[in-house]
Amino acid sequence: MSADLTSRKRTPGSYVRFLLAAAPWVGLLGLTPFVNRVEPFVLGLPFLLFWIVLWVVLTSVCMGIVYWTDPVNRGGGER
Questions:
Q1: Which PANTHER family match (predicted)?
Q2: Model pLDDT for residues 26-42, shown as the tens digit of each residue
Q3: pLDDT at position 2, please?
């Protein structure tokens, strides 16, 4: 392993990546009881179903941003 993960320094960017990684968990599990309603309909879906689908899409976006901003993934192909 070229980089020891325990010796990496914490940077402000690492905290942002952590918050982006935690956002889907909070959105799906933490906020679902507060949006648990059928109406209003959004795009023809009950609001709760729309909320879940929205967070599935946002999870992919958040994880993509975390991946592209993590300096470990900029190694240039070396392993």
A1: BSL5891 PROTEIN (PTHR40034:SF1)
A2: 988 998 889 888 889 98
A3: 53
Enclosing domain of residue 25:
13-71
Amino acid found at 45: L
Q: How many independent structural domains does the chain possess?
A: 1
Would residue 53 count as lying in a domain? yes
Query: Per-residue pLDDT for 7 more than 90?
Result: no
Q: How many residues in total does the chain contain?
A: 79
**Predicted structure pTM score:** 0.71
Within-domain flag for 21? yes
Burial tier of 55 (Cβ tally within 10 Å: 0-12, 13-18, 19+): buried
